[in-house]
């Protein structure tokens, strides 16, 4: 199965790209993840994950516009491909099925 | 890289060092997005939690990019031409450049080739000098025994040794030596076998010699001299006598007096050994047996007439042995000799050739000075040639600048340009090396003649090739480095836009170079002139007798002496000869120096050493000596058999005001001085004449001196004399020498130095002129536009010419001011060596300076006139 080559961090990054589309690039992804998880996330880690996902064909990228904060440098914007979307759905389906099988009394014990 | 926001808000800048670090490790194609991300994040952080925190975090963020996917460089987008393709292109361009500027190429390659050729010649010469005597296997262990003596306050050093010293060394100091070998000096004798007669030079020497000197035996064994009355001959002597027949066991007669048996033939010794003229060896015992004076000297410590060579025992230190045997003579020679403070020491073989001069008992070098001198000159000439090469290359840089600009614009990186110029200079250097080899091959015969050597190019020696090629590569790299680094650093934009200009001081190194070159050249020219003037000075010295048409023959058999009167009468009757006489020493040397003379008024401390020459009555008339006082020997006075003629130096030495009529005593003998002659130059023409006594000899003399009838031409006279000579001495050779030719040989060393010095001076000038030419053309090119403008504004050709030449004149004057004191100092020192010496006149310096200036103007004018004659329209059109 394809899913085996999707790491946990990569999955989160892929999700973030989907959520932040169409303006997803490493800085806002890192900020978003930091905000959501509370852990510090470096752009380096995100960028590396993005590169890997692009290599696997889950993402495509193009260079966007330059801004003053970036010292006049352009940013690389990412969008999820159809393959990427399907994979996300697959992952989610697996998880949902598993969630659904957890007995309600056990769920109660956790909360 | 332009950065707008950096200038607007300085505190908003992230740490620059971190950026720089990132640029180092991060792949270049990712720089833009990565740096952009980092900076943007930084701004976000700075707004949220302050600049200080953001800066700290920034470092961590940068560190997070240390991952293989960011470090890995992207493969080149465009196809990379292979190195071979590029190299082919470089070579093509190089050849096109060489072909397009033929004049420059010729100067560039020619100059370098000449410099290399000179370096090679000098290298060969030095190699030859340093390998002198290394033919002998025991090179490191052989030494000659020498002694110093102090007479009348002068300490002199010489190789002449008394015979009993050998026995002393063997018995008392035997442990230190493997061999102790007594030898005579190299003597010429008449060897004959059947009808064949040859005059050959050889030694009486003890039988261990062939072993000690590791002679290569072609026939017989090294112990051949153990046999009494034997002879070993060199290969060439063997061939002359016996052709292809076996020489062993044949009997050769020496001077027609006694026969010796050939017991060995050895390979001819190479010319760069001390014994290169050792054509035969006869056992020492023969010398003792046939000559009474040698026999009588066997126990005489005061007869310094022999040589001793030793080979050290293994593991013995030469200096220690030398110190040990210091008093070997003093302890045995008795009181009479102790006055001279004789000290014995060993002169090792490796010093024989290069360190042969002694002054006041101290070794002061010798030939080694010339090895150093020529070595330094060689390095200089080569260096000058290399720097010239670099200069000419950079001077043309502006012509190549456009090419560099285009190459850079179409994508050449700096490394490629560097390798282009390197390969170009290597190509040129390789051509120069090939040319240099050809040049050396062509010059070598002439150089050999001048340097009195038989050097060959060492084609088959790997070391030679290694040195040659290594040196070529080195020169290529050094010479190519400047243009390569300099030209490749041009900015393409500036070059192509035409705003490219070389700095004000770009020509400074070139100017320094010209000064150095001309300093060397001027020094060499002054040196050459002084050397030749010194030779001329000595040649012009009055020699005290008449040389023209005077010849002498060495006789080793008494045949002529025994019938001398008849011989003389017949010669004079033949009309070929005007006078003839015998003498003990040749006219061009003094063979006997004796002490033990006494006279009234002699200072008891004065050591009475005189050159003593036995002659016959007509000697004076034959050679034409000139009287200052008194009269010549005459047969009319019976008492003349105990008369003496002395020279001026002797009269002065003895302190006699009116020498004629005074008595000189030698033991029981009493001689009356009948005449005083003007000093004759018999030994070195640079030294004052030695105090000399002439007396009437009763013994068979060594030389027959003959004055040719001046009305006859020389060759005709010689053939007539030869016939009569052979009639009286049929068993000998008529081996005559002309006095003037022998005298001229005294100048050989100085003439050789003079010729070599002039050879190098010419080359130095040549190479200097190349450098000058390069600089002049560079300047002319630089100022083309200026000259154009000046001409438009009305400058005459003369104006332009003087404008361009002025700078060079200043350089030459500076060079001259440096060179003159250097030359004055060194040549002054050199002349100190000579008692009779020329002066360092100011006009030599002035003349040389003027000459250098003239050559400079000539060289520079070629370029400056060319620049001045150019139509200003042409030079200004391109604006």
TrEMBL record, chain A:
Where are the bilayer-spanning segments? none
What region holds the Transcription regulator PadR N-terminal domain?
24-89
Q: Which InterPro entries match?
A: Tscrpt_reg_PadR_N, WH-like_DNA-bd_sf, WH_DNA-bd_sf
Q: What is this protein called?
A: Helix-turn-helix transcriptional regulator
Lineage of the organism: Bacteria, Pseudomonadati, Bacteroidota, Cytophagia, Cytophagales
